[in-house]
Write a structure and sequence with these properties.
461 residues, mainly beta, Porin, 16-stranded antiparallel β-barrel, two-stranded antiparallel sheet, globular
């Protein structure tokens, strides 16, 4: 294949894939690949006649390297006490994912294409409209829209032990997340990056152009390095999701964001006998400028009536983080996510230029532990986000210098209890309860607490 033909093929694939996926997707591509029928397990297709593929179209596409997944997630959640106001919302996300193995389709060894998109609809947003605060309550919450998410090419090399990815990317699909935590509604791009990075960073529901390099020297070690455009929505007033409503901004001129992560894994194989462990250590650097959260260019507090009101501009921003997934009990024949597992995430960032300077989350998951319900899971998780020293100092200055009757922002803490019941493979129903301490909107608490209860349903095809 010559370079002209290759370029033409890549353009045609990108155009066709974009047409197929505008209207749907999720932030994480599936880790488990499709079978010979093009089905990624678990899927309701396996419970349907002819695997839901009466004419064999899905299987024939898979034979040529083209596979897809359709996923619908629906939440009905109520703020039953506290927060901004009581009420109930219904929100849904229809997702589509498309993968093209160009080695099968066009004999281009090691090259693949991936794209996804989603359609969001809701009757309100539980966190922003009812509870307030900044910690995630339901990770699919977003402005109603139809949005293109990721769209990239990946080339594998070094006998498949390394890969290079380029295109529109989302950092939260590969960086700074716990595998064990994925059952929880509040599992999301961590608060410390979501509130400190411009437009929330390249994470659901936004993505941005970037490149990613990954090395897997062996099955127990991975190194990931990535560079993203540093503002997926671009500067401006109002909601960042409205500034890039359809995922088509494709910005490339903003100061870049760099992320690196080292992953060490043990006993993750299906037939492993020992307890599974995953340890991730990472960090990020943003090269843009950020406003000081307390002091102005005149050296006095921004809360002082005598201040010019122009914050000091700080060069760059950064953070370091760690993630651990540890299996505590592994029943005979169980996979790495079976039995009993715990997880924890932690991160810190500079206090002077950030809203949050300390973040921690963690929890425990029980999988396949209910007699007669081998595919059910349940567990508890918590999220803690501490307002930075400069934010708390600014609040105290407002009280002391401006005489305002305000509260000092201290922290937000979320507790979630959940149970995931599999009805059939590919269809789950998930009752959920959350208690939120100190939810804060803007510069003031919305209430000292909030209580949220509801149910999530997921259909995968």
């Amino acid at each position: 294949m010559n370079s002209v033909d290759a370029t033409a093929l890549m353009v045609r694939v990108a155009w066709i894939a974009t047409s197929l996926v505008v209207g749907a997707t999720c932030a994480h591509a599936d880790d488990v690949g499709p079978d010979a029928n093009g089905i990624t397990s678990p899927s309701i297709a396996t419970s349907l006649p002819y695997n839901g593929d009466y004419y064999g179209t899905r299987k024939r596409l898979a034979e040529h390297g083209v596979t897809y997944n359709l996923i619908y997630t629906n939440d009905v959640l109520s703020n039953v006490s506290g927060g901004l106001r009581r009420g109930t919302i219904d929100q849904g996300k229809f997702e589509a994912q498309l993968t093209i193995d160009l080695e099968k389709l066009a004999d281009w060894k090691g090259l693949s294409f991936y794209a996804n998109g989603f359609q969001i609809h809701n009757t309100g947003r539980i966190r922003r409209d009812y509870v307030g605060g900044m910690n995630t309550i339901a990770a699919i919450e977003a402005v109603p829209t139809t949005r293109l998410s990721e769209m990239w090419f990946e080339q594998k090399f070094w006998d498949g032990k390394a890969s290079f990815r380029i295109g529109q990317l989302a950092a939260d699909s590969e960086f700074f997340f716990s595998d064990a935590s994925q059952i929880f509604l509040q599992t999301d791009w961590p608060t410390i990056t979501a509130v400190n990075l411009p437009s929330g960073g390249p994470a659901y529901p936004l993505s941005t152009p970037g490149v990613r390099l990954k090395f897997d020297p062996n099955q127990n070690l991975s190194v990931l390095l990535a560079m993203f455009n540093g503002d997926p929505a671009g500067p401006g007033p109002g909601d960042e999701q409205l500034r890039n409503r359809y995922g088509l901004n494709f910005r490339v001129t903003d100061p870049p964001l760099f992320i690196g992560e080292l992953q060490v894994k043990n006993n993750r194989e299906k037939d492993a006998k020992g307890l599974a462990t995953t340890l991730k250590l990472g960090g990020w650097v943003h090269t843009g400028t950020f406003d000081d959260k307390r002091f102005g260019i005149d050296g006095i507090s921004l809360a002082d009536p005598a201040s010019l009101g122009i914050p000091v501009r700080r060069r760059g921003n950064s953070g370091v983080y760690g993630v651990i997934d540890q299996q505590l009990y592994r029943p005979a024949g169980a996979a790495a996510d079976g039995g009993i597992s715990v997880f924890a995430l932690g991160s810190v960032s500079p206090s002077d230029r950030n809203l949050v300077d300390v973040y921690a989350s963690g929890g425990m998951v029980f999988a396949g532990m209910v007699p007669g319900r081998p595919d059910d899971k349940f567990g508890a998780s918590v999220i803690y986000a501490r307002f930075s020293d400069n934010i708390r100092g600014f609040d105290m200055d407002q009280i002391a210098l401006a005489g305002l009757p305000l509260s000092v922002r201290d922290y937000e803490l979320n507790l979630e209890l959940t149970y995931v019941a599999q009805i059939i493979p590919g269809w789950t129903i998930q009752p959920d309860f959350q208690y939120i301490w100190h939810p804060t909107v803007g510069d003031q608490p919305s209430n000292r607490y909030a209580v949220v209860a509801g149910v999530r349903s997921i259909w995968r095809y």
